[in-house]
Amino acid sequence: MTEEQKAKRREANAAHMRAWREANPELSKERMRTFEAANRERRKTYKRELRKADPEAKEKQREASAKRRATKPEEVAAYRAEWLERPGIREKRRAYEAQRYQENLDEMRDLRRVGSQNRRALARRAGKFTRAEWRVVCAQQNGLCFDCGERRRLSVGHLVPLIKGGPNVISNIVGQCMPCNLKQGTKIHSSVTG
User: Fold this and answer.
1) Do the Cβ atoms of 156 and 124 come closer than 8 Å?
2) For 134-143, which contacts have Cβ atoms below 8 Å and span 24 or more sequence positions?
3) Are the C-beta atoms of residues 164 and 186 closer than 8 Å to each other?
4) Nearest one of 134, 142, 194 to 170, comparing CA atoms
5) 50-94, pLDDT tens digit by residue?
6) N or C: more exposed end of the chain, with fewer CB within 10 A?
7) Region 10-19: what's the mean pLDDT?
8) CA-based Rg of the chain, rounded to a whole angstrom?
9) What is the total count of domains within the chain?
């Protein structure tokens, strides 16, 4: 049998199986679940080897998934809802999210800190700064409080407070520990007034 004949046979078999799956969707899903359960480790190994052989395979898979989500949103939503109802899936997902949160706790805190400052300033139309800019300020201060010089968790402090008309831009921002920030309150910082 030549390569061309083999390719034609594979194509015919694939078309036949697609037609059968469309005609018997429930039976097809049940068979696939049974196969997945029986061959989970083998399939994982196979997928790993495929990814090693083709480094772009993961990207191709992402593109295919994005295309499926765009063209068949109801089908994807139904599958996801069914998947979430499987035993243990919700618990695994919660555990995974809790682990990711713990691993990225500092980043999450930075996000909240910068986001809350930007929201407050936006209400007063006083400008905004990015998380990267905030990290630069913290790095310049070596993680030390701008006022007392102690190594503590830094909060966003304004040299000229927002309530006094100070802008929420990085040139008006310093890292202060919470006690120093609260002590300053709504007063203009002493480094500005002299």
Assistant:
1) no
2) 134/110, 134/170, 134/173, 135/110, 136/170, 137/170, 137/173, 137/174, 137/175, 138/175, 141/174, 141/175, 143/175
3) yes
4) 134
5) 778 887 877 888 888 888 888 988 888 888 888 878 888 888 888
6) C
7) 90
8) 28
9) 2
Distance separating alpha carbons of residues 22 and 75, to the nearest angstrom:
14
Q: What is the C-alpha to C-alpha distance for residues 31 and 174, in angstroms, rounded to an integer?
A: 61
Q: Can you tell me which residue has the tokens 């920030």?
A: 181
Q: What CATH code is carried by the domain that includes residue 114? A: 1.10.30
What pLDDT was estimated at residue 146? 92
22: which 2 tokens? 């469309």
Same domain for 158 and 89, yes or no, is no
Q: Do 157 and 121 fall into the same domain?
A: yes
Asked whether residue 98 falls in the same domain as residue 124, the answer is no
Convert the pLDDT of each residue in 149-186 to its tens digit. 999 888 889 898 887 878 888 888 999 998 999 898 88
Residues, the chain, total? 194
Tokens linked to 24 = 């018997």
Which token pair is 16?
């036949």
